[in-house]
Amino acid sequence: MHFHIITLFPKAFSSYLGESIIKRSIEDNKIKVSFYNPRDFTKDKHKRIDRPPYAGGPGMVIQAEPVIKAVEAALKRTKNKKLNTKIIFLSPRGKQFTNDYAGKIVGKYKHVILICGRYEGIDARVKKIFKVEEITVGLFVLTGGELPAMFILDVVARQVPGVLGNIDSIEERRVASSEVYTRPEVFIYKSKKYRVPKILLSGHKAKIEEWKKKK
User: Fold this and answer.
1) Which of 50, 111, 162, 212 registers the highest number of CB atoms within 10 A of its CB?
2) Residue 117, annotated as binding a ligand
3) Do 135 and 104 fall into the same domain?
4) What does the DSSP assignment read for the chain?
5) CATH of the domain at 129
6) In this structure, are 45 and 102 located in the same domain?
7) Beta bridge partners of 34
8) Do 187 and 142 share a structural domain?
């Protein structure tokens, strides 16, 4: 799985991609992440990419042309633009992102292009030129699309075979409880004993699964 991220702030991803499972997945070539900064595709000597919106309004709008060129640069790195590439336009007005949606991406596509907006947004003509799907990660508005892109990358990547190692680590493929416990069996905090639920110590698999479902 190759993630192509269109963003004005590629450094914002450095710490997250450089730790834990995602880092190992990149090192093991299970996933690949490439960045395309629209500033690198502008003709302006100051690399300016934003202008005031037509009809007025607060903030600035990212121009279409540098974003289009960034997407084209990403598409050039795919073998078949139509069949194996998904272009996602991150927007608070988009379709709700879910685990099921992530699973469909893994099953169908090899390349995912994530377009991260900023300021008042990106000139809408970008959406008209490319076959994009507007996606949101929640009912809230962020200052940019970088965090949503990280959410999507993480959720999709963990469903890529080999990323988690053990396929049972994917919670949606098994009964996962919202409560988990480990050693010690009993510990004391401010004179009060806190114990692991007895059912988890019983060894009775069916009853344990039933308890997990209730939780």
Assistant:
1) 111
2) yes
3) yes
4) -EEEEE-S-GGGGHHHHTSHHHHHHHHTTS-EEEEE-GGGG---TT---EEPPTT--SS-EE-HHHHHHHHHHHHTTSS-TTTSEEEEEEEEEEEEP-HHHHHHHHHH-SEEEEE--BTT-B-THHHHHTT-EEEESSSS--SBSHHHHHHHHHHHHTTSTTSSSSGGG-GGGS---S----S-SEEEETTEEEE--GGGGS--HHHHHHHHHH-
5) 3.40.1280.10
6) yes
7) 4
8) no
Give residue 130's pLDDT: 94
Residues of the chain under the 50 pLDDT cut:
none
110 shares its domain with 203: no
| pLDDT at residue 82, rounded to an integer | 66
pLDDT value at position 58?
87
* 114 shares a domain with 63: yes
Same domain, 98 and 115: yes
pLDDT at 79: 75
Quick one: 61 and 159 in the same domain? yes
CA-closest candidate to residue 73, choices 5, 156, 134, 17: 5
Structural domain harbouring 184? 175-214
- The residues, any chain, with a CB within 8 Å of residue 3's CB and separated by 6 or more, are 31, 32, 33, 34, 111, 112, 114, 153, 156, 157
Q: Are residues 73 and 119 in the same domain?
A: yes
- Of 145, 167, 189, the position where a domain reaches its end is 167
